[in-house]
Each structure stands twice: as structure tokens, then as C-alpha cells.
Amino acid sequence: MFNSIRFVQSLLCRVMGIKDVKTLKPLLAGAAVAAALTLGAGAASADTKWTVNGTFDDGTTLTGHFDINQYNFLAHNWDLFTQEDGQQGFVSHEYLPDINGFDPALNVVQFVFSDYFGEMQLTFLHNLNVASNNNPIIGEASWECQFSYACPDSPGDPTRYLVSGFASASVPEPATWGMMLLGVFGAGALVRRARRTAAVATA
User: What is the per-residue pLDDT across 109-137, written as a single tens digit (0 to 9) for each?
Assistant: First the structure.
């Protein structure tokens, strides 16, 4: 095992032009830090997390959140709430991740009642796989239908439409990109330092 480590170290020294194994250790440590920073920043921004706020044509509201994962699919963790409207008969409902919810297009998501006796569709102006501080809801294509197994296709199904609203997802902060760049530049600086040290030692 020890001989294998020595062999790998000597091979890396030859590839990187370093003649002293001692100068290799800080370089490897810096590379590990750079990789950790890069992977950590990437993992933190893997899912696009959307917060939704909207108003229906009956004056009630929609609030909640959902995520689009790194594969551009609806993540199984949504939580959306619609208000009751006593005049038209709509009941309040909380859409939770049972088995229902899908994304037929990159800017459309649908959520179904757990008993399939209602459904909600949200259509946005922009694709949901790209974070934005303001992704408007398209009203005529965003609705909630209740008390029907065929929402909203059957005549007479009680349906209410969103007249305004938007979703917001935080854009990666400058600090995230700064961490990644810092790791890359740090690794490069360590390579240059190791080569200078090796050149001085052989002079």
C-alpha cells in the first residue's frame, strides 16, 4: 500500500514537473479544497426553488412553493395552498406531494387532488429550469378546477382562473461564483508556487 502511494506521488511529480515530493502535498491539499468548493456550490444550486403567489378571478389567493430538479422535472416536495371562496363554492385546498403532479412542458406544472377530484394548472411565461426573480403566471392558461374527475374538460366544471401572479427563484449569489473562482485560482497559484520551489531547489 505504501509503495503504491509512493508510486502515485512520483508519477504526479513527473506529470506536473515537480522534483520534490514535499512540494506536492500542499498542492494536493489546495486541489482538494478547490474541488470541495466547486462541488459544494454546484450541489447548492442543483434544484431551482420557486415561490408562488397569485390571485384568482374570485379574489382568493394562491401561495406556496415547488422545485424543479437538475433533470428539469418537478421535484417531489411541493406545497401549494388555495383559498376558499364561499360564493362560488370553492373549498380551500393544500396540494401536497402524494402521487400527483407533473410537468408536461418546461413552463407548465400541474397538481392533482389526492382523490383526483380536482386539479390545478400553472403556466408561466418563462421556462422553470432557469432561475428568475419574476416569472409571471399566464392567467388564461392557469386555473383550478374542483369537484370533477375530468377537470376542466367537462361542461359545468367549477373552474377559476388566475388573473395575476408570479413565481420567484433566487439567482445564484455572487458569493457562490466567487467560491468557485477562488478554488480554481487557488489551485493554479499552488501549481506555480510548487514549480518555483522545485526550480529553486535544483538551482
Answer: 999 988 888 999 999 999 998 999 999 99
Do residues 48 and 129 make contact, with C-beta atoms less than 8 angstroms apart? yes
Segments making up each domain of the chain, as ranges: 19-45+173-202, 48-168
Identify the H or E element spanning 97.
none
Tell me phi and psi for residue 126, to 5 degrees: -115, 160
d(CA 189, CA 195): 10
Contact at 8 Å (CB) between 75 and 68?
yes
pLDDT in tens, 35-79: 555 555 444 457 899 999 999 999 999 999 999 988 888 899 999
Are 67 and 77 within 8 A, CB to CB?
yes
